[in-house]
Amino acid sequence: ETSTWRERQSRLVVTFATMLTKFETKSARVKGLAFHAVRPWILASLHNGVIQLWDYRMHTQIDRYDEHDGPVRGIEFHRSQPLFVSGGDDYKIKVWNYKQKKCLFTLLGHLDYVRTCSFHLEYPWILSASDDQTIRVWNWQSRTCLCVITGHNHYVMCARFHSSEDLIVSASLDQTIRVWDISGLRKKTAQPGVGGLEDHLKNTAQPDLFGSSDAIVRHVLEGHDRGVNWVAFHPTMPLIVSGADDRQVKLWRMNESKAWEVDTCRGHYNNVSCVLFHPRQDLILSNSEDKSIRVWDMSKRTAVNTFRREHDRFWMMAAHPTLNLFAAGHDSGLIVFKLEKERPAYTSYQSKLFYLKDRYLRVYEMGTSRDVAVMQIKKNGSSYRPPVTQMSYNFAEHAVLLTTNTGSAETSAYELYAIPKDVDASNPEAVEPRRSSGIAAVWVARNRFAVLDKTHQVS
Fold first, then answer.
1. Are 324 and 344 in contact (CB under 8 A)?
2. Which helix (H) or strand (E) element contains residue 198?
3. What is the pLDDT of residues 293-323, one digit of tens each?
4. Angle, alpha carbons 331-86-296 (nearest 5°)
5. Which residues pair with 65 in a beta bridge?
6. How does 63-79 read in b/e, with b if 16+ C-beta sit within 10 Å?
């Protein structure tokens, strides 16, 4: 958390984002964040030892918990039980029941600060990472430590379960990322896995005196030049993203036998605090002590958006498991935001409504309720396409102007599409547009349209 750097204004290149702030708090420094899967709630763990529970829809604080002694860095809701877990600088992991509004029990064992703690999606397990250079797996039902994973030789800043495989990924100030295979632990302690009951009984019958097969390191990823602060699995693809004190965000790919660096996203000019994959788009989000949140195109590895605060360094980020919602914690509170509006661009002509959905231009006929896709929208050579913000239809030419206003005059553009006359609704064709830069474009006559260019002149 050192910040002895000086900002270099000459390197400041900012594309102001279309992030939509939905909720904001003022508090002590936020070190941990967690969304509830169903309710409009968010947990914030603070540097002053307090845990806050907020309703971000009603903009109210529901509860406050302050049993930790010192900063609380790790926090997470359980997906189905009325529980959350917290870990702090007092070396303690606490499991709370938010319905009963109390701490149920404390897990002791770590010998230094607890950096992160999280629940397994399927098993009654808690994963914790600590400055004592260990990762621990706990059973919250039996309230016991199942496994102590060693191998890192500096503080372990972050550890996360994979969403569907028997894997853990960890990041450390020893400059490495490690991927651990915990299928041995699952076979020994949890319910039968894919091998069935016979395989489960065979594995549990053989004692492992030293616990060496509980968690085996599968990959050691080396590439960062400074300590690694955060790491995350992709929810569906064999990818890992990491952020470090070398100011870089790195993308890694893995298979059964090896893991390798795919590329590096450069742009932050101080320590990268947290990084995550967008759950449903080909985007990476990162935040940093340089007071910015950056959004990266995963295929091009380039920044598509930057959101900056004037005085506050960012420390933590979280993504809602199902909604288009994100949260970021900074020196003086938290923000809950969306990356883009979810209402699609649309326009109407007589009884027809033209709108965009899933990269298709669709037409809804109000009289008959007929709804068909008439054309496919091009991606512009990238897996991520910024959302279209404005649409203008010309009935005489049967053409549409689509404007993508990114918030920056330099990167905003419009496209002119001629809608095909013969439409195959089951397989609409991809039409090649005429594309140019511009903040907005609208039809003004049968065969003329006006463009607001980047100098804010109409042409």
1. no
2. helix 196-204
3. 999 999 888 888 899 999 999 999 999 999 9
4. 50
5. 51
6. eebebbeebbbbbbbbe
